[in-house]
Amino acid sequence: MTDSTEQEAAPPTIFAGPTKRFFISMFTRDIELKDAILDMLDNCVDGAMRHSGRDLNAANPYKDYWAKIEASPERFAMSDNCGGIPRDIAAGSAFRLGRPDMERDKALPTIGMYGIGMKRAIFKLGRDAKVHSQPEGGAFLVHYDRAWMDESNETWDLPIDWSAEQRADGAGTTITVEDLLPSVKEDFSKDSSFLDELRDAISTYYGYIISKGFSVELNGTPVEPRILSLFATDDVGKDGMAPYLLQGELDEVRYLVAVGFRRPLATETEIDEEQDASRTSDDAGVTIICNDRVVTLNDKSRLTGWGDNNVPKYHNQFIAISGVMSFTSNNASKLPLTTTKRGVDAATEVYLTARNYAMEGLKGATSFTNKWKGMEEETEQFFQNAKPMTVSHFERAVAAELRDVREVAAKRFSPKLPMPPAEKPTRRVSFTRTAAEIAEAAEYLFDDRAKKPSDVGNECFSYVLKDARS
How many angstroms separate the CA atoms of 228 and 324, rounded? Predict the structure, then answer.
C-alpha cells in the first residue's frame, strides 16, 4: 500500500522527451554516410525552390543555383547559394529535431518533410559543426560544439549569433564539420573509393536536377549528370522505335511513365555470356523519380511491375529495356516516399496507378523483344533510323500524338513498334557445353579456338541442317 506522504511527493507528470544519446549516436545508425550527405544536398535544392519560386515544369528551373562539397580527413563542408535559412525559420524550427509545421512548403515542389536531414548528417559526420547562413535580413551562425554534442549533456539550447559576418557570394548557407569521426576520416581519405562512389551517386540521383540547371561540385570538380535517354524516331506518329509514354494526375500529384529501349536488343552472345550480360544489365530497369530526385534506380523487380500480371520476370534478354516513373507535386507529403526519401511507399494510390501503366509499357517492350528473338541483328536498322532522346525531349515531341485514357485523368502514347514477318516464325536454339568443348568445336569448324560461342552454335546447326537436307 502506498504511503500518503509518497503520494503527495509524486509528480503529476513525468518527462517523456528524447535523450542526446539517441539522436547523436543511435539515430544515425539508420542511414549510410553517403545518404546523409545526399540529405544535405536535398536541403540545398529545396532552398533553391523556396528562393526562386519556380515551377519544375519551367525550362531550367534550377539555373544559377549551386552547391559545393569539400571532403577531406580534416573537414567536411557544403556551401550553396540557395537563399539561406530564413531568420524566422532558424529561430523557430530549422534546428529542431523534427519539423513542427508540415504546411510550410505546401505550395512548393520540395522533397523535405520531416526536418531531420541536416542535423542527422552533422551527427553522422563529426562532433564539431558550424552552420553559417545568410538569408534576407543578415547572416547568422549556429555552432554545435563538442560540449553540446556530449551525450551526457542534456542541454538542448543552441547558441546563435545573429550578427555573423556577411558572405561575399550572396544569400546561401555553409555547413562546416570538423572533428570528424574516425570512420568518416577513413572514408574521406585518398585510399578509399567512397568519394568516387559519392560522385557517382550525385551524378545519378541528382542527374535530372543538374540537367535542369543546378550545379554541384565535389572537391572542386563539377559533377556531370547521368539521365536516361530512349530511342525514338523523329516522326513519332509512324511505325518505328519510340517509347511508351503516359501523363496523368491524381491527388495533387502529376505522374509520368515512360518505357522504351535505351540501346539495341541484346545479341545471342551477350545473353549466352551471362557474366557480361549481368554487367550490361546495370542500366536496365525502371527508375522512380520524385520532384526530380531519383529515389529508386533501375529496378528490375515486382516493385515496378516486372514478373507481375503477365509481365515477364526480368532476364538478361531484356537488357535494352529501361523506363521511368516520375512523380511531381507541390505537396511533398503526397509523394510516394518513405521517411528515408530513398525508398518508395508502394501502397499509395498514385504509385499503384502509375505502376499499372508501367506494366503496360513493359508488356509492349518485352513483347517486341520476344518476337525478334533469334533475329536481333535484323532490328539494328530500326535503331539506326532512331536516336536517343531524353524523356523530357520525347514528351515534347510526342505531345500532339497523346490520346485520352478513359479509366483515369491521363493521356497516353502507345508506339507502333515494327514486327517481324509472320511467314517465317523463328525459335531460339540454345544449349550449354564446357568452354573446352566449345573451343575444340571452334577449332574443327573454323580453325580458330577463340570463336564466339554463338558463332560455333550457329555453325553446328547449319552443319547438321545441311547434312539433313542432303
Answer: 8
Per-residue cell: 420: 517481324
Distance CA 470, CA 460 (A): 16
- Tell me the domain boundaries of the chain: 20-222, 230-413, 435-469
Q: Are 261 and 230 in contact (CB under 8 A)?
A: yes
Indicate the pTM of the whole model: 0.81
CATH number of 20-222: 3.30.565.10
Q: Which architecture, in CATH terms, is 230-413? A: 2-Layer Sandwich (3.30)
Sign (positive or negative) of CA dihedral 325, 331, 335, 337: positive
SS (H, E, C) 149-203: HCCCCCCCCCCEECCCCCCCCCCEEEEEEEEECHHHHHHCCCCCCHHHHHHHHHH
- Is 93 exposed, middle or buried (CB count within 10 Å of its CB: 0-12, 13-18, 19+)? middle
At 99, is the secondary structure helix, strand, or coil? coil
Grid cell 547572416 — which residue? Answer: 139
List average pLDDT for each run of 10 residues in the chain, which is 470 residues long: 58 75 79 93 91 79 95 97 92 76 56 72 95 94 93 88 90 96 96 96 96 96 96 85 96 96 88 59 92 94 96 94 95 82 88 97 96 90 95 93 92 94 69 82 80 82 74
Sign, CA torsion 85/87/92/95: positive
What is the number of other CB atoms lying within 10 angstroms of the CB of residue 153? 12
| 299 three-state secondary structure | strand
